[in-house]
Amino acid sequence: MPTSQHPQPGAPPEPFGGPPAATAVISADGTVIGWSPQAERLLGHPAEEVVGRPAAELVAAPDRLDAARIASILSEAAAHGSWEGLVEARRHDGGLRPLGVRVVPLCKVGGERSWLALAVDMHEPQWDVNRQMLERFLTRSPIGMAVVGTDLRYLWLNDALERSGGVPREQRLGRRLKETMPGLDVDGIEAVMRQVLETGEPVIDHHYQGFTEAAPGLRRSFSSSFFRLDDSAGYPQGVCYVVLDVTDRREAQERLALLNEASARIGSTLDVGRTAQELVDVAVPRLADFTVIDVLEPVLSGEELAPGPSSGDIPLRRAAQRSVREGCPEALVDVGEQVDYVPSSPAARCLAEGRAILQQQQDAEQDRWLTDDPARAARIHQYGAVSRMCVPMRARGITMGVATFIRQTTDRPLFDEDDLRLAEEFVGRAALCLDNARRFTREHTAALTLQRSLLPHRLVRRSAVEVASRYLPADGQAGVGGDWFDVIQLSGARVALVVGDVVGHGIDAAAAMGRLRTAVQTLADMDLAPDELLAHLDDLVIRLSEEESAAAITGASCLYAVYDPVTRRCTMARAAHPPPAVVDAEGAVTFPELPAGPPLGLGSLPFESAELELPEGSLLALYTDGLIDNRRHRDIDAGLDRLRAALSHPDRPLEQLCGLVIRSMLDGHPTDDVALLLARTRGLSADEVATWDLPVDPAVVATARELATRQLESWGLQELLFTTELVVSELVTNAIRHAAGPIQLRLIRQSVLTCEVSDASSTSPRLRHARTTDEGGRGLLLVAQLTRRWGTRYTHTGKIIWAEQSIPMDEPEGSAPALDAWAGGDG
């Protein structure tokens, strides 16, 4: 049987939606009296074959003809005003096709009522609903929809749009958007509507924000799509638009963007305060109106903390804060000051319990702690604190502080669980960066302490040179490096000036620097020539580089110079280090072309020395590359030019000149360590040095003693006569017995009395302990016991044996500071 349904009485007999219906006219006795072209196309029967035949032949196969069925359909249509249902119609080829059929009465002709049958093919997709059903569907849709006319006044809107807007339907129909929803971007929305009316092109996913009457104090986000409605002739009749509330989606996108931004911005430096400030800069204003970071005091100094929550006995300090109001007027303390919380406050409980606390809105029970903290209560009353989050800053099981986020007005939604999860996420990332900064601060402090302990604290003023120095560690981001310098007193009134640079930063670099400095001092005591000293130092670095802990030494640079005040000559050699600057008495600055030499530890090329003659009052400047290549985009030549200009004032006191050079070369704290050593030379006068050439004759020993005695008497050093006679006698005798001529005796009166005997032999003297039966072999032992120190150094023509004695009643040697502050000196 065909299925049927009956529309409500009085419902208009509308055709189905979709393609045009096939129609047929049936007489009262069930005979087809009309057949449309659409019916012919649908079933394939031409009109001449159908008209005049019973309609029953069209609704079933010939073997299933049932004339009573047609009569029953017509009877029901007469009783209810129409009939709708599904029937199987016979096509021209004999097959069956399901049709949706509606039968409605036509006016009576000659007393007989005829019927109009409308049919559609149920195999084709179509809407099988009438206008009433479609309107009910659109009206009850959960998506807001509306239709406006060409004058942009509302013609229709559904229930969802009425609810989301908060304005009753009767107050919107016939009015424009700007008259009913002023809290939205009405000008922008109506501009889009006009565009759609003019162009006919739909606008999809147009975003805007604003306030609605449904939630007057809450900014919402919306996405709307607009398309034009045309009549059958193509003339525009209005605009239909669909509205979605995308506030939740937008907030989720903003949270994700905020988290990505936090990952990129937080932790750009290894500075505790800067890392905390980066966190609050990300949070305000996008997450909160006011944010503060309070850290435990040991975190700022890099100290180690016990794992777990904070017990509350460690003081807190404000590390960073930011507000939407300029100057953070809500804050009770400034950055760097101590912070005190009452134990029942959210921040104190967050630290003690080690968990985040969310206070979505002001609550008398939760805010009871404010009675114990009247100062904060007054600030909250003045500036507001509608919603609050306190999140512990924890990393590697250690609680380092607490981050507090506050929303102060009702213009923004209250903090919710999603906001708390977001805050916990990027506070956790910030806490890890903060812990890295804390650990770096500890290592940096330890490395700086180690480096300062390894560098000379006081540079003793030598008769041969006047010295001044500066050492500036790199800023906190780069860390402590391995720059170092030294001034070493050598035999014969000579002095060694050395400056070096170890690759890298941190404790390893500082330790490597200390090892190199100790090695240079040891090698300098051997009175090696500069090139030989660097060769021995290179061999030592190669051996040390095999140890994993000494890897930082490889690639180090060094400049070693020896100045002899007697000859006024300076011998230098360098290992991949910047050349020294030499300034004459008139202020002319030159950079000697010394052989560069390879970095230490490579063992590839030999080192070469160069010798310069330095007139009285010449100035030597030794430095590390951080001084001349410290600023971005500056080449070495430009740095040398600036150094030349800064050094062109040799008449200034050295301490003053040091400060001038530093300020001229550096703009702020250096990004690499800087070491600067200035030395002003002086030669020994004729009354400070006495030299005699002696023949190779045993009889000359007595003459040598007499020459030395007369010289000491002229210097007023009679107290040293006995020891000096013995030293001269022994050293000259050894040269005559064991070496080759010529022989030279020299006495030098400086801060000590030095006796030197040179010969043409390279044979090294040996200190030995003679037996009681030996007739000799005790001379050098006596020299070693009677003098403060003695030794041998080799020259191009042989060797020199020397011995030093302290001069009685000598004035205390002055000293110059070696480690000065950033703007040290008075220049």
Summary of the model, kept short:
With 827 residues, the chain is an alpha+beta fold.
Major beta-sheet overview: 6 strands, antiparallel
Residue runs with pLDDT of under 50 for 5 or more positions: 1-18, 770-776, 810-827
Number of H/I helices? 21
Oligomer: single chain
In helices, the fraction of residues equals 25-40%
Overall number of strands = 34
Roughly how many Å apart are the termini?
A: 114 Å
Strand content: 25-35%
Structural class: alpha+beta
Specify the overall morphology. Answer: elongated
The main sheet orders its strands as: 1-4-5-6-2-3
Radius of gyration: 51 Å
Average pLDDT taken over every residue: 83
Q: Topology of this protein?
A:
Layout: E1 3-5, E2 22-26, E3 32-35, H1 37-43, H2 47-50, H3 67-80, E4 83-90, E5 96-109, E6 112-121, H4 131-139, E7 144-149, E8 154-157, H5 159-165, H6 169-172, H7 177-180, H8 186-199, E9 203-212, E10 215-230, E11 236-245, H9 247-265, H10 272-283, E12 290-296, H11 297-300, E13 316-323, E14 338-339, H12 346-353, E15 357-359, H13 374-383, E16 387-395, E17 398-407, H14 417-454, E18 458-460, E19 465-472, E20 481-489, E21 495-505, H15 507-524, H16 530-545, E22 557-564, E23 569-575, E24 581-583, E25 589-590, E26 610-613, E27 619-623, H17 636-647, H18 654-665, E28 674-681, E29 689-694, H19 700-715, H20 721-738, E30 743-749, E31 752-759, H21 779-786, E32 789-794, E33 799-806, E34 815-817
Antiparallel strand pairs: 1-4, 2-3, 2-6, 4-5, 5-6, 7-8, 7-11, 9-10, 10-11, 12-13, 12-17, 13-14, 15-16, 16-17, 18-34, 19-28, 20-21, 21-22, 22-23, 23-26, 24-25, 24-27, 27-28, 29-30, 30-31, 31-33, 32-33
Helix pairs in contact: 9-10, 9-14, 10-14, 14-15, 15-16, 17-18, 19-20, 20-21
